[in-house]
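Page 47, continued from p. 46.
Same chain as before, 71 aa.
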Amino acid sequence: MLKSDYVIELKEAFRKKGRIYLVCEYVEKNLLEILDEGPVSSQQARHYVYLMLKGIAYMHSVNVIHRDIKP
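Result:
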């Protein structure tokens, strides 16, 4: 339903033995992994925040609210 360069794609969702599984597109590295590698410059930090805000703004524009935003 969501099509944006700033939001990962949900490929499939299913329930198995009472648990819900979400299958998302492959992402080589997430922001937490990048931050664990060491300090980032303020310019890089601004860029990452910008990308996150673009994704959130897109979701809000199509009336979707994300309840668990994390890097």
